[in-house]
Amino acid sequence: MDKKEGEELLPKLLQEQENNGWISERALKAISKQINIPISRVYGVATFYSHLHLKKQGQYIIEICNSPSCYLNGSMDIIKVIEKELKIKSGETTVDGKFSLHIGSCIGCCDKAPAMLINKKVYGNLTKGKILEVLKECRS
Amino acid sequence: MQILKESSMMAFNKTVEKGPKWVIDTLKNKGLTGRGGAGFPTGTKWEMVFNEKETEKYVVCNADEGEPGTFKDRMIIEKNPKTLIEGIMIACHVITAKKAFIYLRGEYECLKENLQKTIDEVNTSDIEIQIFQGAGAYVCGDETAILRSIEGYRGHPSLKPPFPTVQGLFEKPTIINNVETLTNVPLALMMDDWDPKLKLFSLSGKVKHPGVYELKEGTPLSKLIKLGDGEPKAIHFGCFGGCLAYEQFKDIPLTPEEVLKADCFLGSCAVIVTDKKTSIIDVATNIAKFYEFESCGKCTPCREGTMRVLAILENIAMGQANSADIDTLLELAIVIRDTSFCGLGQTATNHVINAIKYFREEFEERLCKSE
Questions:
Q1: What is A60-139's CATH superfamily?
Q2: Distance (Å) of CA B90 to CA B24, B129, B204
Q3: Interface contact B319, partner A, CB < 8 A
Q4: What is the C-alpha separation between A41 and A47, in angstroms, rounded?
Q5: Chains A, B: CB contacts under 8 A, how many?
Q6: I want to staple B241 with a disulfide (CB 3.0 to 4.6 A). Which of A116, B28, B265, B339 is the partner?
Q7: A49 and B137: CB-CB below 8 Å?
Q8: For chain B, which domains are there?
Q9: How far is it, in rounded angstroms, from Cα A131 to Cα A81?
Q10: pLDDT tens profile A78-93
Q11: β-strands B58-63, B99-104 pairing
């Protein structure tokens, strides 16, 4: 079946996010031209979703869940450990460009709380030790 | 578990043989209702789309399971994707749709590969089933917001009517069903002993054994809590469903009607346990943060209101509020509930209203001491 106008926009933005780790202004313009959708609408959609980043991101995008199930199981402690270890707050990227941190909404892993995603891979039942180990693995 | 049984294409083959009317009647007679939260009768929804004269129609599977504390659809996609795909194929066949979308939430990207493999393996018909990946927006669980998201707009909800059954995706009649609903379709069609009352409950929070439990609708809350082994002070039905005091309501049968009597919504059957050590104010503040972040910004009561609710709750949590602030919070919460545009805003403050109703002393204890 033929694709409808607009149907390709979000998949293209996600593709760009995956290929480059973020979506530049240039990429937004290119997508706008390619599928013939005004740049204003492309920008509107790109800024609507929390997984699309218009700022350069680190090699590893960490998304920590802070919704009730994780919160009740100590997600705030997990966030503190990561913030201290990486020396960044939510929304920031480390100076060496390795990590970006985002505190976000439920990732559907409430049975493994507290949980986080690193580049969309799930890490559940987190403890301080487990986090430090995972970060070490990413660094090496 | 009933939901993990397979029909191995028998239901689809029988659909092709017996035709759309048989499917619609069987689903109606067996009493399958939507499992996304609203509980609309599935057979009736399909009949509405079936009766539309339009030749171009769509099926959308809502796999944007964004409600905090809900993870039953993830389990189905992991463990029984074949039956889900068969359900989608049956829906397409009934309304003669040539294309179906599975709107998979961005957080579930890790399930995509296996799901695609299952589609390639199971779908031998000429129906096109496309996985459409979301990118992280809670409001896209709303059926109209999902449609806007696929069409390449910001995922804002839109006004009903027209309902998606009349004017849905690309303004064509569309069936939108949740993962659990569609997976139940082949089972309801094939199994003589299929039970419409068996539902999936996602249990999480402060319990020793969190997980998905399949229970009969009407099971007492205390039985679910016993299975998970917890000692609750309060229960939240996801974020949107509101909270209740466990001691007072531990024998409440888990049906939408009974839970509604306690001013809560059972919705997608998420049960989050708060233990006695945790302050209800801290949980409320956490949920308020969630709504402040996820409000899509379309309507003023939700966009501005969720922000103010959070600000007042943070004040209370820090011990800087006075008793008038509790009343202001309650009034604001009620206004947001009554005036917001879509279900997100209308339910965003349930938890606050109930927390004040059931745990007012806790709020009062935290007030500014110098008052």
A1: Glutaredoxin (3.40.30.10)
A2: 11, 12, 33
A3: no
A4: 10
A5: 140
A6: B265
A7: yes
A8: 2-190 (3.40.50.11540), 198-270 (3.10.20.600), 280-365 (1.20.1440.230)
A9: 8
A10: 999 999 999 999 999 9
A11: parallel
**Cβ atoms B254, B270 nearer than 8 A:** no
- Residues of chain B with C-beta less than 8 angstroms from the C-beta of A10: 132-135, 149-150, 152
Q: By CA distance, what is A125's nearest residue in B?
A: B210
What would the pLDDT profile of B45-89 be if each residue is shown by its tens digit? Answer: 999 999 999 999 999 999 999 999 999 999 999 999 999 999 999
Calpha distance B287→B355 (Å, rounded) = 12
Residue with tokens 């919705």: B267
Q: Any idea which fold A1-55 has?
A: Arc Repressor Mutant, subunit A (1.10.10)
In Å, how far are A41, A42, A43, A100, B134 from A26, measured between CA atoms? Answer: 15, 12, 11, 22, 23
Q: Do the interacting molecules here have an ipTM over 0.85?
A: yes
| Tokens 């869940």, located at residue | A65
Residue type, A37: I
| CA–CA gap between residue A16 and residue B323 (Å, rounded) | 51
* Domain boundaries defined on chain A: 1-55, 60-139
Residues 97-126 (A) with a CB less than 8 A from some CB of B: 104-111, 113, 117, 120-122
**Is residue B17 exposed (0-12), middle (13-18) or buried (19+ Cβ within 10 Å)?**
exposed
What DSSP character marks residue B33?
B
Q: What are phi and psi of B341, to 5 degrees?
A: -75, -50
d(C-alpha B33, C-alpha B301), whole Å: 31
